[in-house]
Amino acid sequence: FPSVCLCPQLSGQMVDLFEACQQQSSDLARKEMCRTQLQQDIQLGRLYLTGSSMNGLGCRSSDADLCLVLKGNKRQDPIHVLSVLQRLFKTLSYIERTQLIRAKVPILRFREKGSDLEFDLNVNNTVGIRNTFLLRSYAYADLRIRPMILVVKKWARHNQINDASKGTLSSYTLVLMVLHYLQTLKEPVLPSLQRDYPECFNPLMDIDIVPEGPKHIPSYFSRNQSSLGELLLGFLKYYATYFRWDKQVISIREARALPKSNSQEWRNKFICVEEPFERNNVARAVHEKIKFEAIKAQFVESSRILQQRKDLNSILPVRTIINKESSRR
Known about the structure:
Blueprint: H1 8-21, H2 25-41, E1 45-50, E2 64-70, H3 78-89, E3 95-101, E4 107-112, E5 118-123, H4 127-139, H5 145-158, H6 171-183, H7 193-196, H8 228-242, E6 248-251, E7 256-259, H9 289-309, H10 318-328
Parallel strand pairs: 2-5
Antiparallel strand pairs: 1-2, 3-4, 4-5, 6-7
C-alpha cells in the first residue's frame, strides 16, 4: 500500500463532517435521562436505548430508539401495549406529540417536551438490542468505521435514498452495506465478528447480558492502510459496478456475498441484505423498481463524480449539513 495518503482533501473533509455531526456525550446523556425518567413511569418491563444513539453511529440530530422488553413471557399484542402507553404518556408532563405508527414493527413516536428530541419506542423487538451491540462492536473495531458510515448516511439522506418509509434504504441497511464492503476487500478492514466470536453474539443469549457480550472482544488490527477517501471511493464503485444486485445477498454474518436462493425471503426482491441474527431481508422496503433504479443510479452517478473531483462537496453540501447539524441542539 502507498505510504502517502491518497485523496488527502477528501479524507480531511470526511473527518471534518464526522467531527461536526457525531453524537456528543451530552446528547446521549439527555436521551439517557429521558429513558431513566420513562423507566420510572413505565412499570411494564425494562426500557433499553437502542439503535444509532447506542451503537456509536449516531449524529447529533439522530432520534432515539427505545425497546420495551415486557416482564413475563406471555405473548402480548404490541399495538395494545403501545395504546396503553399512549394513554399514559398523555399524563406525563415531559412528553408531547405522541403518535402510534402501525408499521411491521409498530412504534410509539413522541418528543421530549420543549425540545426537538424525538423518540421511537417499540415493544419486545429484542433483535434490535442484539444488533445494536453487534454494530457497536464493528463501529469501534477500526477508527475509520464511524466517519465512513456517518458520511455514507449523510450522502444517502441528501440524495433521498435513505428513507425506508418512502421505499428506499433504511439507515440500518446502509450500515450493513458499508460493513459488507469493508469485510470483502482483498485486504479486509473488518472480519466477521459473529464468526470469530460466536459466544459474544449468540442469538439465544439472554437479553439482559447482551450489552456485556462485546466487552470481551480484543481490538481488531487490519493490514489495510487505505485512507477514508479511498474507502469512500471504493464503496461507491463497489455498488456502482461490482456488486450483483440480482444474484447476491449481503451477509455481514458470513463476511461475504451469498448466492441468492429461490426462497420466499429473497425471491423477487430488488435488494437483499441479511439481518445478521434473524436472517431476514432488512432491505424489504425497496419493493418498487423505480426506487431501486434510482438507488443504483445514485451510486453510479456519485461514484463517477467523486472519482473525477475527489471533493466531498461534489456529492454532498458539506457546509450546509454541518451548519444544520450544529444548530440542531
